[in-house]
Design goal:
By secondary structure, this protein is mainly α. It is built from 5 helices and 2 strands. The chain has one domain (28-103). Helix 3 (58-67) packs across helix 5 (85-103).
């Protein structure tokens, strides 16, 4: 008998007596040529340049390398670097995946 995963109903999957709530799961594969957070920051002129144009310290920008770029700074970085929201999202996914692997 072939086992299949049931279709989600209201973002909840039922497996017998267990329920799995689907939060924000992105199953798209990461691109091989994707930009990193470090490359995006460099395209902006570095952490000091971002700090000068925002209320964020250079030290906080360096933390983005590990944690990803916070959503509230995407517009500024897109303006400064010319990258797209999709590229920032991809860079964040890679940074967070590396952090998870390092702490696993």
């Amino acid at each position: 008998m072939e086992s299949t995963i049931p279709e989600p109903k209201d973002r909840v999957l039922e497996f017998g007596a267990c329920f799995l709530e689907l939060k924000s799961i992105n199953l798209e594969p990461m691109k091989d040529n994707a930009l990193t957070v470090q490359q995006i920051v460099a395209r902006c002129g570095g952490a000091p340049s971002i700090s000068a144009r925002s209320d964020v310290s250079s030290w906080a920008v360096y933390k983005w390398y590990r944690n990803g770029i916070p959503n509230e700074h995407w517009d500024l970085l897109m303006e400064m670097s010319g990258v797209t929201a999709a590229e920032i999202h991809q860079a964040n996914r890679m940074a967070r995946a590396r952090e998870m692997m390092a702490t696993a």
